[in-house]
Amino acid sequence: xxxxxxxxxxxxxxxxxxxxxxxxxxxxxxxxxxxxxxxxxxxxxxxxxxxxxxxxxxxxxxxxxxxxxxxxxxxxxxxxxxxxxxxxxxxxxxxxxxxxxxxxxxxxxxxxxxxxxxxxxxxxxxxxxxxxxxxxxxxxxxxxxxxxxxxxxxxxxxxxxxxxxxxxxxxxxxxxxxxxxxxxxxxxxxxxxxxxxxxxxxxxxxxxxxxxxxxxxxxxxxxxxxxxxxxxxxxxxxxxxxxxxxxxxx
Length: 250
Fold this sequence. Notes:
Layout: H1 9-28, H2 36-40, H3 43-65, H4 72-82, H5 88-96, H6 101-130, H7 138-162, H8 164-197, H9 202-222, H10 227-238, H11 242-248
Helix pairs in contact: 1-5, 1-7, 1-8, 3-4, 3-6, 3-9, 3-10, 5-6, 5-10, 6-7, 6-10, 7-8, 9-10
């Protein structure tokens, strides 16, 4: 991975790839593809969810970061984190928190597809705000999205239809593996980017906490009248993708 943190790049990138594959494959086996018709019949709700995740949260993070006297590196790190949505863990958290499975899955897939356009657009805008020359290649990002998220998710969905008995046997056995990998990866990822994003400035911790709390609240408000869709939108809004953040920090 591009960040020169205390964890070796080969170990960090390998663990991320393995964890994403296991988590997304496991989640895919739980998805009933035919239920997407119910979700797509309410495009306004999906559009509000996408608006919250892709536009509202980055704009909110930019406004807060620029007014907290964080230092240039921490400020840019937080803003870059905010424009890196589509964390696979968001879908898992949504389901565990009672989020609508079909809506959360559709939102995750759409965010993963649209991030190919939204992240380069945000990076272009931030170049002008901060007078820097950062960039991210849309094709490289699309390849990451497909290989790390969409491919294992689709394989899991296909297996559910092709071999339901295999899925019935495999899903419970794979669940603790996915949980264990996440329990290893999350603290390791935070530890590896802590100095880049947070450092020793207490204001950064306050700013990150405030952005997360407001993202949850705004996602809840934009998630429609049903508790399941509100929960899914709130969690998708607050969760950010550390793997894509690392790509931006290259």
